[in-house]
From TrEMBL:
Highest taxon listed in the record's lineage: Bacteria
Descriptive protein name: HTH araC/xylS-type domain-containing protein
Ranges of biased composition (kind: Basic and acidic residues): 308-318
Pfam families assigned: Cupin_6 (PF12852), HTH_18 (PF12833)
Lineage: Bacteria, Pseudomonadati, Pseudomonadota, Alphaproteobacteria, Hyphomicrobiales
Domain HTH araC/xylS-type residue range list: 215-313
Organism: Devosia nitrariae
PROSITE patterns on file: HTH_ARAC_FAMILY_2
Keywords, sorted A to Z: DNA-binding, Transcription, Transcription regulation
Location of region: Disordered: 306-327
């Protein structure tokens, strides 16, 4: 049961966004990690980007589920979140608990090449930080609270672009900074193209960037669906009158704010039910419902089944998925 995006940016709006995109303050390093090592990246004021060259491992982002990481995987981590990259040990297992692997704290861009451990590397990854602005200097990733994860392939040629960008930074030639920024922009443009086809929910964050106040209100609802949002509280949070907020929100989504909030709550509830980690009463609370009966009625209208039946079906479907390899 895959969570699908509710909205996508239009091709015309995406083209305008890509045309006005400006990338700067690029810092990139290639990190070669031996078996059983971990790379700790401290919180920073800018988002970080991580791209797999070879091997596999896992990325742990503060407050988020683990992200499986392999060649051609691209991960953008929001600013202010600590990140850890773990390489598998000699047996191919991934030990995710702290203290078992050799730990190194690293600042992206501190050196062009960074080696962790004395043995042959089992994971090669680019780590970097950057600033991406669009339109009138608006931060493209400011409202992105969770990591963006997309997997590319060799035909996308991101390996070559990343290598070229790092070479420009390492050479310290005239224009190396602008060249590396232009090359990283190509990587981000490849990511933004995924807004039209990706099944990951992050794409909907870019669907309304032409109206920043409405984008901020949507981010408030999506980030905290359990909060008791109202039209009044949302309009106040973005400094719009109630009528202006209602009109602009409905124009952007074709639905009222409360209808959109209900969709977001139901999707959040479905994810929690599929994870099977908390009770249905707790799922109802985390979806913003004080009453289990009210939550159940809304969930049944939205999905055509009761929460308990949805959870059971999700559990049955995972039993038929192939087991993941530890290597």
């Amino acid at each position: 049961m895959t969570v699908q995006p509710i909205w996508r940016i239009s091709r015309a709006d995406l083209d305008r966004l890509m045309t006005t995109l400006e990338v700067s303050h690029v810092r990139l390093s290639e990190c070669a990690m031996a078996a059983g090592t971990r790379l700790e990246i401290a919180r920073g004021e800018h988002p970080t980007i991580h791209y797999g060259f070879a091997g596999s491992g896992v990325i742990l982002v503060e407050g988020e589920p683990p992200v499986d990481f392999c060649a051609h995987t691209l991960v953008v981590v929001p600013a202010g979140k600590a990140t850890t990259i773990i390489a598998p040990d000699a047996s191919g297992a991934l030990t995710r608990s702290p203290g078992r692997e050799q730990a190194v704290i690293f600042v992206p861009g501190a050196s062009p090449r960074h080696t962790i451990g004395e043995a042959e590397p089992v994971l090669r990854v680019v780590c970097g930080s950057f600033v991406a602005l669009y339109a009138a200097g608006l931060d493209l990733f400011a409202s992105q609270p969770v990591p963006i994860v997309e997997t590319f392939d060799a035909h996308d040629q991101l390996d070559q672009v990343m290598n070229y960008a790092m070479s420009e930074l390492a050479s310290q030639e005239v224009g190396g900074g602008p060249m590396s920024a232009a090359l990283l922009k190509l990587v981000l443009l490849s990511l933004l193209r995924r807004c039209l086809i990706s099944t990951n929910p992050w794409v909907e964050r870019f669907s309304i960037l032409n109206d920043p106040p409405i984008a901020r209100a949507f981010a408030e609802m999506a980030n905290r669906p359990s909060d008791q949002h109202t039209v009044h509280s949302l309009s106040q949070s973005v400094a719009l009158s109630r009528s202006a907020f209602m009109a602009r929100f409905t124009t952007a989504f074709g639905e009222s704010p409360m209808a959109v909030l209900r969709r977001l709550r139901m999707r959040h509830a479905a994810s929690l039910l599929a994870a099977n980690a908390i009770s249905i009463d707790q799922v109802a609370m985390q979806a913003g419902y004080q009453s289990r009966s009210s939550f159940t009625r809304t969930f049944r209208r939205h999905y055509g089944t009761d929460p308990s039946e949805y959870r059971a079906e999700a559990k049955r479907s995972t039993q038929f998925e192939p087991a993941e390899s530890s290597t």
